[in-house]
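2024-03-11 09:14:02 INFO receiving multi-entity request
2024-03-11 09:14:02 INFO entity count = two
2024-03-11 09:14:03 INFO echoing inputs for audit
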Amino acid sequence: MTAEDGAKSEAAATPPLVELDAVSKYYGHIKALTDVSLQVHPGEITCVLGDNGAGKSTLIKIVSGLHRHDAGGFRVQGEETSLSSPREALDRGIATVYQDLAVVSLMPVWRNFFLGSELTTGRGPLRRLDVPRMRATTHSELLRMGIDLRDVDQPIGTLSGGERQSVAIARAIHFGAKVLVLDEPTAALGVKQSGVVLKYVAAARDAGLGVVLITHNPHHAYLVGDRFVLLKRGTMAGSHHRDELELEELVRQMAGGSELEQLSHELQR
Amino acid sequence: MSGTAPPAADPAEGTQPSRPAAVPERKGLARRLLGRPELGAVVGAVAVFVFFAFFADSFLRASSLSTVLYASSTIGIMAVPVALLMIGGEFDLSTGVMVTSSALVSSMFSYQMTANAWVGVGVSLLVTLAIGLFNGVVLTRTGLPSFIITLGTFMMLTGLNLGLTKLISGTVSTKGISDMEGFESARALFASQLSIGGVDLQITVVWWLVLVALATWVLLRTRVGNWIFAVGGGVEAARALGVPVPRVKIGLYMAVGLGAWISGQHLLFSYDVVQSGEGVGNELIYIAAAVIGGCLLTGGYGSAVGTAVGALIFGMTSKGIVYAQWNPEWFKFFLGAMLLLATLLNLWIRKRAEASR
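2024-03-11 09:21:47 INFO inference complete, emitting structure
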C-alpha cells in the first residue's frame, strides 16, 4: 500500500501519462479483469506480470484502444478516456508493440516503419509516397537506436526477432509516442535477443517515455522495471515499487506452490 | 539471475547485419531481382514466347501478336483487381459471372427502358460496384472466409444471370441493342479497334495497360497501396498501427466490381448479344493469372505488372496452340503445369523472405 500512497502524492503534482483506476472488463458473463489499477509515469517502466490467462492481454487491449473498459477509471494525462480504436490510442500518444504482430514480415523495413503514418508529397491525384525521405528517415532513426541496416528495402522478416521488436520500438518513439506498451517483447526470444530488446526498452525509458512492459518473466521485468503490477486470474495480486521489492520476492509472488518448481526449473536454464 | 545479457551500452550488440545485408554488395542486383514478384512470370513468359516462336510459324506475325494481346487483355483487365485483392489477402470467386452480370444489366436495362445505351452502362457500373460492396461488407462484418462468401455470391449471380434473363427476355440471351442511341459511341470506348502502325489493336489492350499502370502506381506509390500489402501480409499489425482494414478490403472488392464492369461492357459492345450462362470458370483463370504473376495466395505479396505478364502467358498459350495447329485441349494442361511451377517458385521466394524467423 505504501507504494500506492507514494504514487498518489506524486500524482497530485503531475498526473501520470496513463492511469487505470479499478478498471474491470467483462466478456458476457466472464470477468476478464476486475479492479485493476496501474500508473505509468514518464521515464519509468511499469511491468505487468502474470501467468497465461491472468488478464494481461485484456489489459493491453484496453490501453491500446482495441477494447473499451466496462467499469473503473481510465485516465490519459489526467483526462478521463475511453478509447474507441488503436488509431485514437496512437493519436493520444499510446503506441503498442505486439509480440508477433508488430510487423508485416513480407514488407520492406521502411514500409513497416511508416505503416499507417506514411509520408506523402504532392497534391491531389499526384499525392504520392515520399519514398526517398521515408527510406532515409528509417535508416537514420534505426541508427540512432544502434541498428545499422545496410538495406532498408529488405523484407523485415529477414531480421532477427529481437531486431524486429527493436524496429517496432524505434517506430513508436519516432512517431512521438509518450507511452509505449510492449506485449511480451521477450517471450519468443532467446537470452541474447531478449537482452537486445530490453536494452531498447531502457533506451525508450531514457528518452522520457512511459513504458508498460507486459511479461511473464520476472527476471526480465526486474532488470528494467520501476513499478510492478501482478495479475492473477483477472485480479490484482500485488502492486509494488522497485524500492520495496527484491527479485526473489517478485519471483515468489509470480508463482506459488507447484508453479514455483517449474519456474525454478526455467531459472536454471 | 538467469543468463540474460544486461542492457549494457554496447551498440554493436544485436546490430549484427542480418542475413541479406551480410551478403557482399555486388550480389545486390541479383538479390534484388530475385526479390521481385514478377521474376517467375517474366521467365515463364519468355520461355512460352520462344517456344511458340519456334513451333508455330505464324506466331511472330504482327496480326498474330495483336490477337495474342487481345486474348491477354480480356483476362488481364480482370486479373489486375483480382491480384490487388489477393495481395490484400482475399479471394473473389464471383468475378467470372460478375462480368456476365455487368453485360446483362447494361443490355437489359437499356433494352427494357428503351433508353440510351449509356444509361445501361451507368446502371451496370452502379450494380457491379454494389456487388463488390456487398462482398466486402459481408466479409468485414462477419469475418467469414472470403472463399465461402464469394462462393455464395458466385452461385447467386449464376442463378440470377440465368433466371432474370429468362424472366425478362424469355430466352437465355439478351436482345440486340445495336440500333440503340449511344451504342456506337459506347462501342468506340469498350470494343473498338485502333490502328497503330498498320496493326489493329483492340481497345481492351489500352484499358488493360492503363489499369496495370494505375494499379502499380497505387500499390507502390500511395498510402492505400502500403495498406493493401499490410492487410494482406499482417492484418493484426496493420490494425494495431491504425490502418482502416475494413475500408481497404471493401475498396478492393469494389475495384473488382469496376474491373467486371469494364470487361462486361466490352463483352456487350463487341457481341451485341449476351449469353446469360457465360463466365463460369473464368474466376479461376483470373486467379491463376495473378498467381503465375507472382501474387501469393496467402496475401501480402505480388504485383500488377507480374499479373499482366501472367495474363500474357495465358494469351500466348491459348493462341499459340492454335497457331501451332495443335489440339486445343493441351491448353489447359499447359496452364495447369505453369500454375504449379509458379506456385512452387512463389513458395520458395516466400521462404527466403521469411527466413531466420
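2024-03-11 09:21:48 INFO post-check: Chain B has one domain: 38-351.
2024-03-11 09:21:48 INFO post-check: Chain B touches chain A through 50 residues (CB under 8 Å).
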